[in-house]
Every structure is written in structure tokens, then in C-alpha cells.
Amino acid sequence: MRKLKLIWDFKGPDGLKTAEHHEIHLKEYIALEKLSLNITGFDAINEGHSIAFMVVNDDEMRPVRDALKPHRGQLYTED
């Protein structure tokens, strides 16, 4: 089954802290909704742009997307 990475972008000097905090809420949502995957994270893209993300199975994407409104998404590939 395809896995999709849902991404929230945070910009500015506090972007990394905001992304880190947002990940906490993503983990809470996963537990609350009993989603099948528990893959989340945050990352600094550069000094002024950070992201938080969660990975969902393709069949769970639409309800999660509609509830949490990510800024964008992409196919997830494990490194």
C-alpha cells in the first residue's frame, strides 16, 4: 500500500520550535484516531523554513487531510 507524507510548513525565526510542537499534536491525533502508522517528525529545511510531517497509508489520507489540513503532501519513501 502506498504511504503518503503530509507536510506542514512553518516559516520565520520560530519555525523550528513551532514544527517541533506541531509534531506533538500529530502524535496525539494518531493515538486518538488509532491510525495504522505512527511515523512523524520535524525538520529544518533552512534557517527560515521548517516542516512537521506525518505519514499515512493511502486509504487513510482523505479523512486525515480534511481534518488536519496539511499544506502539501508527497509519496513517502523510506530512506
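That was protein one. Protein two is written in the same sequence-then-structure order:
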Amino acid sequence: MHKQIYVNLAVKDLARSMAFFKALGFGFDPQFTNEQAACMIVGENIYVMLLPVPFLQTFTDKPVADAHQSTEVLLCFSCDGRAEVDALVAGAVAAGGRAPRAPQDHGFMYTHSFEDLDGHLWEPMAMLGVPPA
């Protein structure tokens, strides 16, 4: 069996967060989505569980970070090319997110980033060639 990853992210408004990510083209697994959580499909075997803060708090004794105030994680994922990277960031901004910095072109890799409605940092990237040795 292939390993799967489920990243759990705190959200303030589950329905609003789901609408944001649907606007970017992400789908949700209905088997693991209800009024307490949404299982967003990022790729084969990669999922993000959007969890309202009170529900996420039941999984830990630590305080839940406010991603608008501090960086708790940077979620980097691959895209098929520059156009897809740029389209995702443009879609995120149009849906209410923000692009905190300019795109980065490293020659062999192109990245850009956006913050979702809850301040989580996402970095779509495209590998364009072989990195320098």
C-alpha cells in the first residue's frame, strides 16, 4: 500500500474555506467531509484536512497557531508548469487570499506563493529542469 499524507489545518469558517479551495479547482472526498471537517484532495495520496479550530483543538493540548501571526508550515506542492503555478496564485488572490511575495524563478524551478483565508502559506512550484550541481 502506498503511504498517504493527511495535513491537518485549522480554519475559522469551514464552508468559506471549502469555497476558497473549490475556486482553485480542488475537490473534496465526501467520505471524510462533514460539518466538522473537510478532506481536500491535493493529489494522489495527498490530502489536507480542513478542521475548524474548536475541533482541531480536541487533537492537541497545545494552543492552535494563528497563521496570520506566525508561520506554522509552508505547504509546497508541484505543478505541471509555470502557467499552472501562476493560475493557482491568481485564483487564490481572486478568491480572497493574498500573494505575499513575487514569483521566484531559479532557472530549474519556478515558485510563487499565496496565503489562504486563514493565513496558511501555500507554495505551488514547477520543476523546469535539472538543478545545478
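The CA atoms of residues 60 and 95 lie 30 Å apart. Keep this in mind for the problem set.
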